[in-house]
Protein 1
Amino acid sequence: MRLVLVGPPGSGKGTQAERLVRQFGLMSIGTGAMLRDAISRGTEMGNQIKPLMDQGLLVPDPIVNDVVAELFRSPNRPDCFVMDGYPRTYSQAIAFDALLIQQFLNLDAVINLTIPDEEVVRRIGGRRCCPNPNCDASSYNVFFRPPKVPGKCDKCGSDLILRDDDKEETIRRRLREFHNNTELLITHYRYRNLLREVSATDPVETIFANIVRAIGK
Ligand code: AMP
């Protein structure tokens, strides 16, 4: 199965991607994590994109397209996958379509997770991450997924942090950018008859059940 998850930050794309991985054995491809990894390794590209990501701005399409293309052209290219955060613009969707054709892969569905902006702002204010680059703990949320000890990572005990790109001012900018960029992308996938709309305001389990129903599994 090959899926794309679309939704604003805070819509629970990462959480649902994790469940899809567990249930269907898919590889989760999160461009946010891949780009943050380049920043923490201090690569030339990482240094170039850091100021943009700190401000909650999108990384230019050619850079993200290259990161994804490199993965798909590598010897261990993903076969069954869920894209978490890519494509995010119409131009990325066109580049991804071309890449998949080249690789003889086709998409099964694009899940659009819908949620009001104010709910996103509330949810993201509760997000916390482990800053330890050697720790593979996924992120926490003080409302939905609190750590066992408040403020501490369950896996390594580090003090959890609120990422710069999760601060309120930043999140409002990201939401504006999300709406500007995704309108055409969503229309594109609707025309291709791949789009499935799922409300992201329900409990996590219900959202997952609705996704599974929407993809016909
Ligand atoms: P995420 O972890 O998906 O919320 O992404 C965090 C940040 O990474 C975003 O605010 C962007 O700066 C950058 N990013 C992730 N995926 C993309 C993408 N497909 N296109 C452009 N920028 C991206």
Note: Residues 9, 31-32, 35, 52-53, 56-59, 64, 85-86, 88, 92, 165, 174 surround adenosine monophosphate (CB under 6 Å).
Protein 2
Amino acid sequence: MSGTDFYYRPQIELAERLARLAPGDAPKRVFFTNSGTESVEAALKLSRRHTRRPRVIAFHGAFHGRTYGAMSLSGSKPTQRRGFSPLVPEIHHARYGDLESVRSLFKTTCPPDELAAIFVEPIQGEGGYIVPPADFLPGLRAICDEVGALLVLDEVQSGIGRTGRMFASEHWGVAGDIVCLAKGIANGLPLGAIVARADVMDWPPGSHASTFGGNPVACASALATLRLVEGKYMANARRRGDQLMTGLRELADRHPAIKEVRGIGLMVGMEVRAGGAPDPDLRDRIIELAFRRGLLLLPCGPSTVRFCPPLCVRARQVEVGLTLLDDALSAAEEERVEPSEAREAAKD
Ligand code: PLP
């Protein structure tokens, strides 16, 4: 049976829990989905319906999902869009981390009184694990309040304890009008949710629904997950994140391939360069060589390696991961040595 039609206890308990956890004093309402992209889709529909305005701002480098609304909001890679047009109209993109670029849209293509919402990842994930400047999220909050638009925080990747706080936006003391969740919320079972201010989620029954969104098995898993995240894994994310960042910065002192190490908690990015310029090939090679040594990593952005381990990762596992990475970096750097230099080195 569907939670759209009948209530069941785990769904109600989870909704109450998420409503309590989400930042902001206003009462909240929750809508359940099965995935991140569906959460973003629900937030887009709700933003337009509630404000009765058509336009939305999102950011270059953003990734919000693969269904039409979420894909149209994304600004990460051409391959995610190629061949799928026409996309959802009236979506404008600004530069991530740059408030002035948002304001300049108001003077050019986006009348502010037509703006329904700004969609933003508190830390940009797919776009390169980018931590924005300190004034960015508070500035977006202020702009939304000024023009009567909603601030929608996509915490699909950054939420549920990953950064050492339940929601990444807490690091900046910012509350969204709608928060999108999925990924870690049910520890691998398909579940997503939006948590919105109660006065914002004012659509009547039937406006939006999902048969399996918030099914009892996924909700039970989410309740157990949240207990563990709050109980110990959020603190673990802080401790292991510090360990990982310190270790990566030590590696950066010895490996010229590492340009920058950045992140919060267990959402950590390592930017790769060669001769001062971003180098996607070198980044991909490091990931391949790490994989052969038993360390699984993912890329993000043009030339960043992402570290996104389980929140239960142990100190020893971080240590081993750093050792394997050290070795992979050395191997990748050696491959890059010019053949003549390699011959000279062989003579020595
Ligand atoms: N939003 C963000 C920030 C994401 O990182 C992702 C997935 O990577 C999504 C949305 C889409 O989530 P899903 O793959 O569950 O649809």
Note: The mean pLDDT is 96.
